[in-house]
Amino acid sequence: MRRVILFIMLITLFSVPNLLVNAADIEDGLWMYLPLNEATGDAVTDHGPHAFDTELSKSAPKSVDAKHDDIGKALEFDGKATYVKIDMAGQKKDIDSHFNDKQGMTICAWVKVLKVGTDAHGQTRQPIVMKGNANQWEFALYIYDDFGAGMSVWTCPGSGVSEPHGAGTAPQGKWIHQCGTFKLKEGVRVYVDGAKGAVAEAADGGNGPCETGERPVFIAHREDGQWLNAVVAEVYMWDRVIDIDEMNLAMNNIGGLAVQPGGKLSTTWGNIKRR
């Protein structure tokens, strides 16, 4: 019995430093982190290194019980008028890494789709995370009307640079962890639930993503009329392409990667023990 206990202690001793190293790696390039677990208030907190100010729609999204083993509270968006707004450009920290061939970008979120077909102009998709408007189209992490997880990157006028999605990969009423990555010359890749294989991918069309867009980032809304009806939690953005191991670390440490202003990573001992 003592040998078993000693063995377990040794595993724990050696695995904790590895987890801390991985956590430090995942902090690299983190641009924004919104847990969306606030139960009250007129804004949500960005725990990323830039500590962005945020703004809720006049009719605010509802804080709800996520009904998930690890997620407590989350925000429910009605598909009609509710959103979260983050004006990065207005705060002089706009994300521009999608047109940098050395960096790229990653967006991840937990999402439970309630209803599709809620956009106002028949494009058959609704945004989880979105940035762009007329002649400033940039990128979006999407849910499609066929319950498909997807991502789009555009030129400034709105032509598709890379826009794949995988039908049926975001089932109605089921929580999924969705990540989208983009890098010049590689294109977009979309991942669900930390699986190694992408559920959708498309090459870079070669016509270049938008470099001059300064529109705010929105959660669950596109400024020309798309609205998401879903419950959303744990929204991350990085100014680089993260790997599958890092996606899994973010997915499995809900609420445990709160990076405070100044770049201090606060991964709790409770989350380390849980993993």
* Strand segment count: 20
Radius of gyration: 18 Å
CATH topology description? Jelly Rolls
Helix content: 10-25%
Measured between the Cα atoms of the first and last residue, the distance is 23 Å
What order do the SSEs take from the amino end to the carboxyl end, as H and E?
HEEEEEEEEEEEEEEEEEEHEEH
CATH arch. level architecture: Sandwich
CATH class: Mainly Beta
Number of H- or I-type helical stretches: 3
Summing up helix and strand content along with how strands pair, one would put the structural category as alpha+beta
Question: Which ranges are low-confidence, i.e. pLDDT below 50, for 5 or more consecutive residues?
Answer: 4-21, 259-265, 267-275
Query: What's the structural domain tally?
Result: 1
Overall pLDDT confidence: 87
The major pleated sheet works out as: 8 strands, antiparallel
What fraction strand? 25-35%
What is the general shape?
Answer: globular
Describe the structure.
With 275 residues, the chain is of the alpha+beta class. It has one domain (2-274): Jelly Rolls. It contains 3 helices and 20 strands. Strands 1, 3, 4, 6, 12, 13, 14 and 18 form an 8-stranded antiparallel sheet that branches. Strands 2, 5, 7, 8, 9, 10, 11 and 15 form an 8-stranded antiparallel sheet that branches. A hairpin with a 3-residue loop joins strand 19 and strand 20. The radius of gyration is 18 Å and the shape is globular.
Topology:
Elements: H1 2-27, E1 30-34, E2 55-56, E3 62-65, E4 73-78, E5 84-86, E6 105-115, E7 125-131, E8 139-144, E9 149-154, E10 160-162, E11 165-166, E12 175-183, E13 187-192, E14 200-202, E15 217-219, E16 221-222, E17 226-227, E18 229-238, H2 244-252, E19 258-260, E20 264-266, H3 269-274
Antiparallel strand pairs: 1-18, 2-5, 3-4, 4-18, 5-15, 6-12, 6-18, 7-8, 7-15, 8-9, 9-10, 9-11, 12-13, 13-14, 16-17, 19-20
